[in-house]
Structures are given as structure tokens and as C-alpha cells.
Please model this.
Amino acid sequence: MSVNRIIKNVKIATPLGKSARKGKEMSEIHFVEKGLIVIVNGIIEYAGEEKDCPATLLALHEYEYTDAGGRLAIPGFVDSHTHLIFGGFRPDEFSWRLKGESYMSIMERGGGIQSTVNATRSASEEEITSKTSWLVGRMIEMGVTTVEAKSGYGLNRDAEKMQLEAIRALQQDEKTPLNVVATFLGAHAVPQEYKGRTAEYVDYIIRELLPEFKGLAKFCDVFCEKNVFELEDSRRLLEAAREMGYKLKLHADEIVTLGGGELAGDLRAVSADHLLHVSEEGIRKMAEAGVVATLLPLTAFALKEPFAPARKFIEAGAAVALATDLNPGSCFSGSIPLSIALACIHMGMTIEETLTALTLNGAAALDLADKIGSIEAGKQADIAILEFDNLNYLPYYVGMNCVRTTIHRGKIVYESSNPFQSSQD
Ligand code: NIG
Ligand code: FE
Model:
């Protein structure tokens, strides 16, 4: 449905551009004090000072009006790394980790990802999609207007296909009004049937799954990790995927320093994600090759691991994105507010860098920076209006949602029930 809308009485804070903001550029936020946003057909036609808006544009169409009451509009958040299609839950594992067990030791004894694979294979499509819609609904309330979703809990043809089809259905479902990007993660773990035969499983993915899923997924991803898919298998898989036209992502250097950052640089992947234990060389190679470093503070927090070296990436001139990693195991949280707080308080990122990382650079991590991720003419009208008039509230309201209105393609898809009438109350 096409929407023409004018958002008036609005402040704006946004990064600008059609590509990732790198290094120092990440803190360059464009501010508008007395702004106006004009949306035609779901696309931003004008965003800037009200006084500078051409009168002809206002006369050209009929509009719906939204009065922002002096509040701050920012680009809708882009959550560029999630695993939100899955059967079952794993709260017991969380309690085991609290008692000292490690994420990898649980995985090695058949729990972890394999346990969600078992639950996903035996779940009905209905169970899975209704859970996903619920999770996505909560994200929209937090201002998310684009989400990436990975497969990776099927690990065979039928179950991976079911996950990818569920992602496509999500994209088309009116009840989940946001942009959805699909990633094929058949190499998330070596399934039980292939235990001890990792290379054969990679051959199977290359031969049978990659060609079949080409129309269903934009990206191919791999859990590049010690004792999962190590460098050689990851490289072989990703090179084959690239040949077939997939864009590349990696789960890299999450648990140990393996050289995933370096591999991402060599392959010129669109993004490498996690990077808690990335080496200096990995940082350098990623910065040089323009690979987006997607950092996932909620996972580090939930696994009680050190946070990824955001400052080192920024100082090396790399583009940093932030995402939630929402999944049933390592990180059962899709909290944008907590991600912001952790990035600012524990990773040393400035509020401006954090905004860029969750908007334009998230879009770049999905190869969509030319279409979304900023409030400027020509971009899709995906916007979050905050309860407040100032960017500093984002981390200050620690772990709490301060989004008042979420707008997707010009349409209001969420409004909070905050009784405060004005940002000055
Ligand atoms: O990004 N580490 C690999 N994949 C996910 C976790 C998946 C799971 O535990 O179910 C991650 O952390
Ligand atoms: Fe992940």
C-alpha cells in the first residue's frame, strides 16, 4: 500500500549516505532542529528544516499528517544478525551455563545448536511461524524496521527449506510489517548424521543445498569456529556460495581466535560477525577490504565473554554495525535498548557511533545501504520516533524502550501508549 505522509514538528538525527560509514565517519550525525519529513509512496522525498521545504512538493500530493510534538526521529533500526526461526527453547542450558558449563561443552555433548535442530525438525510450521511473529512484533515495538533472519536449525534439505520458506512468509505477512533479509546458514553445526564427517557435510551443502536455495536466500553464512567449521571448510563453502551468486557473511572468532576476521577480509565478505576474539591482523584485513564488523554485545553479555573490540575496529577505519543475534541458545534477547546501553557503557562506543552502527551500517551489513538506514531523500521511509527530543536518552534510559512510533514505508506500524503528551513533559 502506498503511503504519503508528512511528519511535522520533528527533530531529526541521522547518519547520511548510501554506503557504510567507516572509522571516524561513524560519529558524523546530521541533526535537524525544526524539521519536516515528506514521504511520497513510502519513499522520503524531503527531510530537513521545515522552512527549506519546497512548497511545490507540499502541494503536489494529498498527505496524512503526523505531529511528532518536537520529538526526535531517527532511522528505523536494522537488526542485521538474528536466528529467529526455531523450534523449542533452551532455558535449561542457560541455567547450566550459570553453574559454570561452557557454551561449547554443551554443544559438544549434543546440546546447543543440535538440540534446537531436533526441536525444529519435529516442530510444525505453525508453531514456528507463530513464535517468529511474536518475536518480530516485539522488535517492531523497539523501532526495528529491517531484520535479517538465518536458517541453520534444519541442517538437511527439508528442514532448511522449511526455515527459508518461513522467512519468506514473514516477509510477505501483513502482521509483520518490516523488511526481512534471508540468510542460508546450513553450516551452523555438523548434524548428528554427519558426526566426524565435516568435509562430507560441506560437500553435501555445496552440491545439494546451495544450488537449490539460491532463490530463497541473499546471503550464505557459516559458523567458522574451532571444532565446528574451521578455516579450510569455511573458505571452501563460502567460495562455492559466492560462485553461485550468494553474498557472504561469517560467524567469526566468536569463541576462540581462529582467523575468521582474516578469512572475511580475504573473501571480501559483506560482513563478519561476533569477533569477540578477532586478531589485530583480522581487524586490519577487514578494515582494508571494507568488511562490516557486526558486533553483538548481547551475546557477549549473555555468555559472560569479553565484548568485541569496537574501538579497535573504529580506529582501524572499519565500519562497525551492531545487531542482537536473537537466538534460542547463546542469546535469547532481541533487545535493541540493551544493545545500545552495552555498546555505550561497555564497548566505549559514542552515542553517535551507536546510532550509525544500528542504522546505516546495519543496512550496509545487508548490502542495503543505498535503500534504507538513514532519513534522507530517496531512502525508504523507515523511521523511529522516540518519546524524547534528544539522542542521549537512548543509552540513558538503560535497557528500556524509548520508541514512541515505528514507521515502515511511511506507514505507522507501532505506537506506544505513553500518556505523556509532549517531549517537554
Ligand atoms: O550466533 N554461534 C553460533 N550461532 C549462534 C548461536 C546459536 C545457538 O546457540 O543456537 C550465535 O551465537
Ligand atoms: Fe549468530
